[in-house]
Amino acid sequence: MDDGVVQRVFQQGGRDYESSSTSSILQSLPLHASFDHGYYLLVKSIQELRQKKDGLVTVGIGGPSGSGKTSLAEKVASVIGCTIISMENYRDGVDEGNVLDSIDFDTLVQNLEDLTKGKDTMIPVFDYQQKKCIGSKAIKSSSSGVVIVDGTYALNARLRSLLDIRVAVVGGVHFSLLSKVRYDIGDSCSLDYLIDSIFPLFRKHIEPDLHHAQIRINNSFVSSFREAIYKLKRRSETPDGHSAFAFQENEAQKDNFIEMYLRPPSASEEARINDWIKVRQSGIRYYLSLGDQRIVEKSFIIRPKAEFEVGRMTLGGLLALGYTVVVSYKRASVSVNIGSLSLSRETIDTLDETYMVLRGTDRKTVGAEALKMAINGPWITKSYLEMILERKGVPRLNTPPPISSSSIAINQERVIAAPRPIRTTPNLVTRLEDLSQPWTRSPTKSKMEPVLATWHFISSDPSHADSSGIDSSSFRDTIKLAPMPDSYDLDRGLLLSVQAIQALLENKGLPVVVGIGGPSGSGKTSLAHKMANIVGCEVVSLESYFKSEQVKDYKYDDFSSLDLSLLSKNIDDILNRRRTKVPIFDLETGARSGFKELEVSEDCGVIIFEGVYALHPEIRKSLDLWIAVVGGVHSHLISRVQRDKSKVGCFLSQNEIMMTVFPIFQQHIEPHLVHAHLKIRNDFDPVLSPESSLFVLKTNKQVAYQDILKVLDPAKFCSSVQNFIDIYLRLPGIPTNGQLTESDCIRVRICEGRFALLIREPIREGDFIIQPKVDFDISISTVAGLLNLGYQAVTYIEASAYIYQDGKILIEVDHLQDSPSPYLQIKGVDKEAVAAAGSMLKLDASYTTKSYLQIILERLPPVERSSNGIHAQQAARLQELVEFIQSQGSSSASESSQSREASPLEGIIEEMQCRIRRLERWHTINTNFDPLVYSPHILRINVIDASQAEAAVNLHPDF
User: Fold this and answer.
1) Is pLDDT above 70 for 23?
2) Helices (H), 481-521
3) Domain end: 344, 360, 392, which one?
4) C-alpha separations of 825 from 741, 802, 822, 856, 931 in Å
5) Which residue among 343, 376, 392 closes a domain?
6) Res 922: pLDDT
7) DSSP code, position 203
8) Which residues form a coiled coil (predicted)?
9) What is the DSSP letter of 669?
10) What pLDDT is attached to residue 430?
């Protein structure tokens, strides 16, 4: 369990179980958790509770509107496979938004009691367009091992006694809207007054219940271009050609919306639509987004996932605070789904025109489908709001159209029936003052920056160096970006990065050269590729410029390992719009394998260089945009070390850990990051988040190679052989049950000459192993730092595997020593697709969720399983590897010699290369003749007793 924070205790409260006279509930967490961490804790808590009791596990997820409750419930359900009961379906038909009296608690309580008693039940279905209950839906108790109640009042006193686990979620748009309103209207109103105006029922009817939660989550996520929607839009009165056929062949969905834009009371008469609040009404539901956040890239409109449901009274509260509806229009939509895309025909009443809109999450797919369906331009990249403003003769950034008071009244009347905010008087909530906590009611900042910051340019004197010591005359011209004064989270940083590129293209023209720097594992590569997906540009990793002689010493974080002269030539060629050849580095062989051509063009006018030293003075002097990224696994590793050390009674500061684990960062990397135009703090936790999960099915059932080919797309099929060494590091003194487990260790994998880190065990649910889909590269000095902090290498694994993939499904065949057959793993981000692939291979009922550590230990004789009687020579190879890591990690790049003797690790790598050639020969034979995927046993696992090797040798196998 995660750090022991979520622990089982038996105490009075919670739901009574028939099997026990007392109740087992979760111990309340003293502090709030992030959304990612809270998701992880909730999943693990549900799993633990299922093991401790029979029957149904009930979970309540409550919190204010827009906090992220529904998103959390859906993400947990995608892993656990549970039933979600939305309290929205228990309305009694009264259109009063989130008024407590409109919820039919009697029916909800009866439904939960039926399920907990093992009875089937019927839950109501509410239609938001018709504003009434239209029927019911059956839920079978046999299929409802876990039930989640999702709703604003899910932690209400009438439900709490029926809930095993209570979760409170705050933040999201709830906090962000409070922060924006406070920014817009200033400090004239107290925070409590704003809460009572915008969320009138929160302090009286919602907040008191949140303090009864056992897991408390603060959701900082608001909007993100990580899941952007790409849109192509053109005018079209009626569908024609292939688009008409699409509407005829697919079931169409009709929707009618009213969309409003609210201008802040303190805003000037300039129509800065990015600062307006957008509210969309659909039936009795209201969705809010903060500002017109979008990116226009060539023909595409790119929008983030930025809309959140709020209560009806929130709109009334905003109007009462002085926000005015400056634009309101009706949008009637008829849409059909075509695979992963959506095709809509939208009519805007104010414009009296119809538009064809094609949407999808992948820009290339959207563009290709538009060509396939013969949907051609001219494309429109303006929003409906912009077109309405222009139709009324108002430039985008000038005075908005004069709207008379009567017009506003008409617009408001047709949206809502004269909303009136409810304000609770102080005397009604005085007893809550002692319970007031930042996690329930306070925005993260008393004032927040505007929804979208604005980039500015400054002129520099070419005869002088700038403040960072760089000669400005080396730039193409004397115009450069002014740095942003604050740091930003990953979501907003992504948006600002793209906007900076667009500003540079507009003001300086082609090309634009970007540098993204930061420590290992901070998220540089992820950010670079997300930017490239939006802008449509090329990403070049500085790792392509490694010098072979330095890489042999694993000096990936040393500036001297870069071929700076070639990098400078490539950047100079790009700036002068000359065709250039950038290197291709083969990490497996540790040598340059060739070159690829780059040429600046209208289609590819932006080049992104990303790497640890991308903002080094010798590099950034030639770049147009400097972006620094910190956080990510870089921070999570420090937290993990702090946790482990505190368990054994040793407390280290973050600075002490940083200097040991990331010794080069503070001296050679961090000083360059402070000069960045944009500073991004990556708080996203890809280790825990369901956004980055791989669903894995594992089996030792033999599968024919031809059957694997049938599962994968032949047009995208590729295969490879991967060799790796795993070492597991455990801090001495951490309590164990006499056997090594994944949760006690940090795994370091050496693969293709790289070091990758795993600091948390995966989630196991049913047949699936749910694990992060990302690897975190670290330097050899980081591994040496962990050893210096007291971690011991306790496990050593050398292995190889066949890998077959088509971009959607990956099938990995692992070969273990002393196993009668190889283990096969099916991996993918789509759980259903992975399950379908397993069924096609007839693997159902053969899966295991055991790690290779567990599998191997179970096969060892008891005497070896307890690590007794192992010969000392079995520890030799691990000892050599540890000594090599410590020596290379503590040495500087200048100490590396091209004429040095071959290291023990090099001998291991060379031997593995020979095995690759053998495996390739076997692969050819298997492909043509052998009906089964099979190869020689090539996995070596050593199990070593710590008492037999002082440096690091209590060895148990894992994988």
Assistant:
1) no
2) 490-508
3) 392
4) 21, 10, 10, 17, 18
5) 392
6) 40
7) I
8) none
9) I
10) 32
pLDDT tens digits for range 695-712:
999 999 999 989 999 999
pLDDT of residue 461: 58
Give me Rg for the CA atoms of the chain: 30
Instruction: Give domain status of residue 951, yes or no.
Output: no
The neighbour count for residue 715, using CB atoms within 10 Å, is 7
Q: CATH number of the domain that 181 lies in?
A: 3.40.50.300
Note whether 10 and 45 are within 8 A (CB): no
- Do 705 and 753 fall into the same domain? yes
Confidence of residue 859 (pLDDT cuts 50, 70, 90): confident
> Is residue 194 assigned to a domain?
yes
Q: Lowest-confidence range among 611-615, 785-789, 880-884, 890-894?
A: 890-894
Res 379: pLDDT: 92
Residue 887 bridge partners (DSSP): none
* Structural contact between residues 334 and 309, judged by C-beta atoms closer than 8 angstroms: no
Q: What is the percentage of the chain residues whose pLDDT exceeds 90?
A: 24
Greater confidence, 859 or 439? 859
* Token pair for 43: 């999943």
Does 85 share its domain with 139?
A: yes
Over residues 110-127, the mean pLDDT reads 91
The helix (run of H) or strand (run of E) holding residue 420 is none
State which residues form the domain around 179: 1-11+29-221
**Distance (Å, rounded) from C-alpha 190 to C-alpha 196?**
10
**Of 256, 291, 259, which Cα lies nearest the Cα of 453?**
291
Whether residues 625 and 744 fall in one domain: no
Q: Are residues 565 and 710 in the same domain?
A: no
- The pair phi, psi for residue 511, each rounded to 5°, is -90, 170
Q: Do both 171 and 206 map to the same domain?
A: yes
Q: How far is CA 202 from CA 217, 279, 468, in A?
A: 17, 20, 49
> Exposed e or buried b for every residue in 443-476, given b needs 16+ CB within 10 A?
beeeebeebbbebeeeebeeeeeeebebebeebe
Could you list the beta-strand ranges (E) of 500-639: 512-517, 538-541, 580-586, 591-598, 606-610, 625-631
> Using CA atoms, how far apart are residues 778 and 756, in angstroms rounded to an integer?
6
Which residues are paired to 513 by β-bridges?
607
- The total number of structural domains that make up the chain: 4
Residue with tokens 């793993």: 825
Per-residue pLDDT tens over the stretch 336-393:
988 888 999 999 999 999 999 999 988 888 988 888 887 887 899 998 988 998 887 6
Same domain, 48 and 169: yes
**Cα end-to-end distance, the chain, whole Å:** 20
Residues 768 and 863 in one domain: yes
Q: What is the mean pLDDT of residues 789-814?
A: 87
User: Are residues 708 and 639 located together in one domain of the fold?
Assistant: no
In sequence order, what DSSP letters do the residues of 136-155 get, joined into one string?
EEEE-GGG-SEEEEESTTTT
Sign of CA dihedral 559, 562, 564, 565: positive
Which helix (H) or strand (E) segment is 799 a member of? strand 792-805
Which residue's structure tokens are 């697709």? 833
Residue 893, in any domain of the structure: no
What is the tens place of the pLDDT at every residue in 250-302? 778 888 899 999 988 876 555 567 778 899 988 878 888 876 677 888 889 98
**Within a domain: 663:** yes
